[in-house]
Write a structure and sequence with these properties.
The protein has about 120 residues and is mainly α. The protein is built from three helices and two strands. The chain has one domain. It has a two-stranded antiparallel ribbon with strand order 1-2. Strand 1 and strand 2 form a beta hairpin. The protein binds zinc ion.
């Protein structure tokens, strides 16, 4: 592995490389995966310094609710670490909305199954 930092996606060695994930290492401190600004935008990558507090260093992606124009603006921020408190609110809230949508879908499926379990009324 080269010591020269390069983008994980396009292998560029320039272009505002930023750490986006932590690679666990069995021995030693491990290292980081870097991504250039273009790839952080196209892959919707959250910079490592802005990962949620409970992150183990794996890749994090801006949720779909974050529009592309905002992802572009966020990728240009100089101090992304200031985003962490917002990310700490955003990620659990997005997960809660997703769980609610799953629950709503399960409720609708169950009601449909109840309707299917009863005979059609003669009119
Ligand atoms: Zn790249």
């Amino acid at each position: 592995m080269s010591l020269l930092p390069r983008c994980l996606y396009c292998e560029a060695t320039t272009g505002e490389l930023v750490a986006v994930a932590l690679v666990a290492s069995g021995s030693g401190p491990g290292w980081t995966y870097q991504a250039c600004r273009t790839c952080r935008i196209s892959e919707r990558l959250v910079p490592l310094v802005a990962h949620p507090s409970d992150s183990w260093g794996g890749m994090h992606y801006w949720p779909d609710i974050v529009p592309h124009e905002l992802v572009v603006r966020l990728a240009g921020l100089r101090s992304a670490s200031e985003l962490r408190p917002v990310v700490d609110r955003l990620f659990p809230a997005v997960a809660a909305v997703f769980r609610r949508e799953i629950a709503q879908s399960a409720v609708e499926d169950a009601v449909a199954d109840l309707w299917a379990a009863v005979p059609v009324e003669e009119s």
